[in-house]
Amino acid sequence: MPRSLPNIIITGTPGTGKTSHAELLKSHIPELVHYNIGSLVKSENLYEKYDEEWDSYIVDEDKLIDYLEPLVENGGCILDWHSCEVFPKRWIDLVAVLRTDHAILWDRLEARGYSLRKIEENNEAEIMEVVLAEARDSYDSEIIVELQSENDADFALNVDRIVEWIQNWK
């Protein structure tokens, strides 16, 4: 059965604005369902354990995929996470990779209270384009879009671009 709405991944290094973009997109197209994967993993116990050293959960990818499978089959899902390679290609119609200048990212992560080690690790990942490389390794290039995400104007422009893409996708 063809989907009436696409499934979209909004991904990027922590602090690039994934959740803000997803929420703004949903406000434009209320039929979309936003899944913040980090929150979902915690609330639905979709993890193996909590890693105190890194202050994060180790996701059980099999549990996550099993949980999401019936939710994404009809389309209309926004998957908001710092990783994208775990999601099967057949699920995904668009991968939006958010990019932020590392100095801006540093300030955002510092404001969140991240440890210095976590801030450094995430900044290095952004500089080295880790999430973008993961997207390129996991999905066809024609469904990947790289978007700057440094201020409110970028957020609005990015969401407008995605809304236009969805209208054309239909």
Automatic annotation (TrEMBL):
GO terms of molecular function: AMP kinase activity; ATP binding; ATP hydrolysis activity
Subunit structure: Interacts with small ribosomal subunit protein uS11. Not a structural component of 43S pre-ribosomes, but transiently interacts with them by binding to uS11.
PANTHER family assigned: ADENYLATE KINASE ISOENZYME 6, POS9-ACTIVATING FACTOR FAP7-RELATED
Name of the protein in question: Adenylate kinase isoenzyme 6 homolog
Cellular compartments annotated: Cytoplasm; Nucleus
GO biological process annotation, one example: ribosomal small subunit biogenesis
Function comment: Broad-specificity nucleoside monophosphate (NMP) kinase that catalyzes the reversible transfer of the terminal phosphate group between nucleoside triphosphates and monophosphates. Has also ATPase activity. Involved in the late cytoplasmic maturation steps of the 40S ribosomal particles, specifically 18S rRNA maturation. While NMP activity is not required for ribosome maturation, ATPase activity is. Associates transiently with small ribosomal subunit protein uS11. ATP hydrolysis breaks the interaction with uS11.
Highest taxon of the lineage: Eukaryota
InterPro entries in alphabetical order: Adenyl_kinase_AK6 (IPR020618), P-loop_NTPase (IPR027417)
Catalyzed reactions: ATP + H2O = ADP + phosphate + H(+); AMP + ATP = 2 ADP
Residues that bind ATP: G15, G17, K18, T19, S20, R112
Pfam families: AAA_18
SUPFAM superfamilies: P-loop containing nucleoside triphosphate hydrolases
Transmembrane regions listed in the UniProt entry: none
Major subcellular location class: cytoplasm
Family stated for the protein in its record: Belongs to the adenylate kinase family. AK6 subfamily.
Gene Ontology cellular-component terms listed: cytoplasm; nucleus
